[in-house]
Amino acid sequence: MSLLDFHNVIGLSPMDDITDLPFRQLCKEMGADLLITEFIASEALNRDAEKSLRKMRFTPSQRPIGIQIFGADEGELLRCLEVVEQAHPDFIDINWGCPVRKVAGKGAGSGILQDIPKMLGITASMVRHAHLPVTVKTRIGYSHDSMMITDFCEALQDTGIAALSIHGRTKTQMYGGTADWTMIGEVKNNPRIHIPILGNGDIVTAAQAVEYKRRYGVDGILIGRGAIGNPWIFEQCQRAFRGESEREISVAERVEVCRRHLQMAIDFKGERTAIFEMRKHYGAYFKGLYNFKPYRLALVSTPSLEETLAVLDRIAEHYR
Questions:
Q1: Average pLDDT of the chain?
Q2: Residue where a domain stops, chosen among 241, 270, 287
Q3: Which of 98, 153, 237, 258 is catalytic?
Q4: Which of 179, 213, 241 is at the close of a domain?
Q5: Who's near 221: CB < 8 A, 6+ residues apart?
Q6: Given this model, what pLDDT does residue 190 score?
Q7: Is the bond leading into 99 cis (omega within 30 degrees of zero)?
Q8: Which of 57, 123, 244, 311 could be disulfide-bonded to 239 (CB atoms 3.0-4.6 Å)?
Q9: Over the stretch 57-97, which tens digit does the pLDDT of each residue have?
Q10: Same domain as 16, residue 136
Q11: What is the pTM of this model?
Q12: Is the pLDDT of residue 171 over 60?
């Protein structure tokens, strides 16, 4: 796949405080074709906020990669372009999809779906001023009463974006209910659409990825929550698309990759921050193990690296 080829890709969808550099590296090594950073506030980049600048960091092995930015103010978004382009990503992704209140409530993310002309105007301005390809990620509408993606996707395409990613939920759904892939399919199958369309939402198995890609005809799949604690999903997807059977992931391998994830997080963010932030991954890494609750409680409560590694050793031994 070339750096700017969005066709036939299985990519990692951006998730705040999840898809950081260490986690992206694991997903890349396990078969993710395309990576996108956590979303980053344009205002924070313009203030040189340390945490936001760190979110842009990536390694050469993670290419092709996009840096995702969000904001509701056109001036702030345009000003941050220079900062983003200095990081030399392969493309810039605009987040018109985040539904959380602190983002959407300010008119950014999926909040802008209440003002389509503004969304189109800002997107067109970003495309004109950027020196890199610009892509967009959005949702199918603000609410079920305004699921307009099939209406405005042509206008989005006309702004000059290189690709469009669509999450099959509305803003008001947040992360509940079921992603509506029929709307994504309608966009892809519109004969006037010629840019790549990537689908996102509720993909948690390789079989689903294969089925949804074939049923709805999308150019690629982005996987979000299905990859948390399960970077193997990209390997399994690649195997499924080649017609190969799924590989069983042993508990020993889960422990090994979890330990590596923890160590990479420590190297990237420091021990204290890494131990705290890794707590959101442990339950997913060991999902489905019988009577795992005591170990999960130990992992999310231990304050030190030594104790955390000891718990992981006990898990490997107990479920050997």
A1: 95
A2: 241
A3: 98
A4: 241
A5: 9, 10, 11, 198, 199, 200, 203, 209, 212, 213, 237
A6: 95
A7: no
A8: 244
A9: 999 999 999 999 999 999 999 999 999 999 999 999 999 99
A10: yes
A11: 0.95
A12: yes
Respond yes or no: is residue 98 known to be catalytic.
yes
- Using the structure block, give the residue that is written with the tokens 């991954």: 281
Q: Give the contacts of 117 (CB within 8 A, at least 6 positions apart).
A: none
Is the domain of 212 the same as that of 275?
no
pLDDT given at position 144: 78
Whether 158 and 299 share a structural domain: no
Q: Please say whether the dihedral angle defined by the alpha carbons of residues 279, 280, 283 and 286, taken in this order, is positive or negative.
A: negative
- Which residues are within 8 A (CB) of 220 and not within 5 positions of it... i.e. 6 or more apart? 6, 7, 8, 9, 10, 11, 33, 34, 196, 198, 199, 213
Q: Which residue has the tokens 């990576």?
A: 35
> Does the structure show a pLDDT above 90 at 119?
yes
Give 151's pLDDT tier (boundaries 50, 70, 90): confident
Same domain, 191 and 213: yes
State the CATH number of the domain containing residue 152: 3.20.20.70
Number of domains in the chain: 2
